[in-house]
Automatic annotation (TrEMBL):
Top-level lineage group: Bacteria
Protein species of origin: Pseudonocardia xinjiangensis
Keyword Oxidoreductase assigned: yes
Domain named Amine oxidase: residues: 14-465
Protein name as catalogued: FAD-dependent oxidoreductase
Lineage per the UniProt record: Bacteria, Bacillati, Actinomycetota, Actinomycetes, Pseudonocardiales
InterPro entries named among the record's database cross-references: Amino_oxidase, FAD/NAD-bd_sf, Flavin_amine_oxidase, Flavin_monoamine_oxidase
Keywords tagged on the record: Oxidoreductase
Protein's UniProt keywords contain Oxidoreductase: yes
Cofactor: FAD
Length: 477
């Protein structure tokens, strides 16, 4: 495909990276963004007007070390010096894990989790190391998966895994990174066949679970939204915020867009268009000229809702209890609680990511009115952090529901529970161009739900567009 004037729909990570790569190849690029700001599902919330001050990530918040494209991009943007370790679930042994007998600190959890597993599989006869490994694996899966995905770690799956793990020396993966935990990321890298148990339908789930609960992970001090801001600042072309695409018509000569900006509606004739908006949003846009199977996928692709609830607290009280970072699996409606580092004057307070949930867990919170939701979360979290009940401790509450956001209708494309072949077929169809309409975004990638997927798909999509010969010779653009 040859083009020189290209419109990119969406100023999230995929749209901004695609625009950057296209401009590097000599194309003229205009970006259309429905929101009033760039970044998409990268969303850093800063409490107060004094900066640096307390901040919390309401969208993307961590980067696995194995995500080389994202790490390279951060360094290219001059942000490499701001990379810091991200402490995840169970990485601080004073954080908590929800068990059948209540909340237990991670350092005291191994025997409780082992007993909990043995009670589920009373007839199982396995090595002690195997059972300890599987107990932490089950705890990590329960902490990562929403309630409606509980079948992912059914007793049958656990039995298959226990049998497989019995033939492996798991001692190198036990407690190698932190007290009591397991290094799932290295384990699944070294023993990829383990993730293929149960017909491979849990492969993507195990990959995400390992990435979320294993080190190394990184964050950006000062906020993840610096990625989007640096990308946007480096573009030559216009980024038109507040411009909503309401119609896309693919025809023989290019793509026609119907764009609404407030009360004004305009028609844009484009040589080519790169669409990076989630299919959960695209299905609400009038579409013409697309193949029926692509339309079917756009309509049917499943997305996880995702909800985060953050608190501005008077002080980082959790540090007095020895918690210096990481996250607790708190269960209930709260699900996961993260303790962001305090990298500012504590007189301005401290941010606490009180609740992070996905899937049906997020939907439960989304269905509550704001006052009820805040009350339920505070009551539940106060069971392990009674300081939250002290007068004046909670200064502000902010919620981000990606499932209810009209520009996302979900936090990420959902592929858990599908076999690898189905996942790949869906990815290829999602990324397949329709004439001069091309597609990118985490839903078109091998890494759904991660910035890595956005970067991967953005760089892949530009390979489909070639600069006309006249433009290469300097006579166009």
């Amino acid at each position: 495909m040859q083009a020189t004037r290209i419109v990119v729909i969406g100023a999230g990570a995929a749209g901004l990276v695609a625009s950057r790569e296209l401009e590097r190849r000599g194309h003229d690029v205009t970006v259309l963004e429905s929101r009033r700001a760039v970044g998409g599902r990268i969303r850093t919330h800063r409490f107060g007007s004094v900066q640096p001050g307390p901040l919390v990530e309401l969208g993307a918040m961590r980067i696995p070390g194995a995500h080389e494209r994202t790490m390279a991009l951060i360094r290219e943007l001059g942000l490499g010096s701001r990379l810091r370790p991200f402490l995840t679930l169970f990485s601080d042994d004073r954080t908590f894990v929800h068990t059948a007998v209540g909340h237990v600190q991670v350092r005291d959890a191994p025997p409780v989790l082992v007993q909990q597993l043995r009670s589920r599989l009373p007839a199982a006869d396995h090595r002690e190391d195997t059972v300890r490994f599987a107990a932490w694996l089950a705890a990590s899966a329960t902490a990562t998966a929403p309630a409606d995905f509980a079948h992912a770690m059914s007793d049958d799956v656990l039995r298959e895994l226990l049998t497989f793990v019995d033939g492996i020396d798991v001692r190198p993966y036990l407690g190698t990174r932190w007290s009591g935990g397991v290094d799932l990321n290295t384990f699944f890298t070294d023993h990829s066949r383990a993730a293929m148990q149960h017909g491979g339908r849990l492969l993507s789930f195990f990959a995400d679970m390992a990435a979320e609960t294993s080190l190394p992970l990184s964050r950006l001090t000062g906020g993840m939204d610096q990625i989007a801001h640096r990308l946007a600042a480096g573009l030559r072309g216009d980024i038109l915020v507040g411009h909503e695409v309401v119609g896309i018509d693919v025809h023989a000569r290019g793509v026609r867009l119907i764009v609404r900006n407030g009360a004004e509606v305009t028609v844009m004739e484009c040589d080519a268009v790169v669409c990076t908006v989630p299919f959960s949003v695209l299905r609400h846009i009038a579409l013409r000229g697309l193949h029926p199977d692509k339309l079917e996928l756009i309509h049917d692709m499943a997305y996880w809702p995702g909800t985060k609830i953050a608190l501005l607290c008077r002080e980082p009280f959790w540090q007095r209890d020895g918690i210096m970072g990481g996250a607790s699996f708190t269960g209930g409606v709260v699900r996961q609680t993260y303790y962001p580092p305090v990298e500012h004057d504590p007189v301005h307070g401290a941010a606490l990511l009180a609740s992070y949930s996905i899937g049906t867990d997020a939907q439960v919170l989304d269905d509550m009115d704001p006052a009820t939701r805040t009350s339920v979360v505070l009551d539940e979290l106060s069971a392990i952090h009674p300081q939250l009940s002290r007068p004046g401790m909670v200064r502000e509450v902010v919620t981000r529901s990606w499932g209810q956001d009209r520009w996302s209708h979900g936090a990420a494309a959902a592929r858990w529970g599908k076999d690898p072949g189905t996942c790949e077929d869906e990815r290829l169809l999602a990324a397949r161009p329709e004439g001069r309409l091309l597609f990118a975004g985490e839903h078109c990638s091998s890494y759904p739900a991660w910035i890595e997927g956005a970067v991967e798909s953005a760089r892949e999509v530009v390979r489909h567009i070639r600069l006309p010969a006249a433009a290469r010779a300097g006579r166009i653009g």
